[in-house]
Amino acid sequence: MRRKLTKSFSFAIAGIKYTLKTQPNMRIHLGIAFIAVMAGVAFQIPSSEWLALVIVVSFVFILEILNTAIETLVNLYTEDYHELARIAKDTAAGAVMVAAIMSVCVGLIIFLPKILNWLY
């Protein structure tokens, strides 16, 4: 049982590593998340704002990993152009984009007033 669980975790970690290694957008998301966390520390945001930040950042990471899985499966199925393959890839990428836009909105709600107070 323990060995099976360890193996399961190693597969999951391999998937995350693969996404980080092969997907430039995942590295961008990670960099922006790092900046957001550093800003959260610098501005000493309350736990409710940390919760919002963790949720939106996690959604972006989760969807980028799922987008990679969907693109990989579509590529495994066919290398030829197919309209349904395009739709699958585009909608998966669209889900990541929506999550990223929402995380920017949450970041602005949390940090913009703090930045403005700091500047003025």
From TrEMBL:
Keywords: ATP-binding, Cell membrane, Kinase, Lipid biosynthesis, Lipid metabolism, Magnesium, Membrane, Metal-binding, Nucleotide-binding, Phospholipid biosynthesis, Phospholipid metabolism, Transferase, Transmembrane, Transmembrane helix. Substrate binds at residue 64. ATP binds at residues 71, 89-90. Mn(2+), Zn(2+), Cd(2+) and Co(2+) support activity to lesser extents. One of its GO terms (biological process) is phospholipid biosynthetic process. InterPro entries: DAGK (IPR000829), DAGK_sf (IPR036945), UDPK (IPR033717). Pfam families: DAGK_prokar (PF01219). It is a multi-pass membrane protein. GO terms for cellular component: plasma membrane. Belongs to the bacterial diacylglycerol kinase family. This is Diacylglycerol kinase. It comes from Acetobacterium bakii. The lineage of its organism: Bacteria, Bacillati, Bacillota, Clostridia, Eubacteriales.
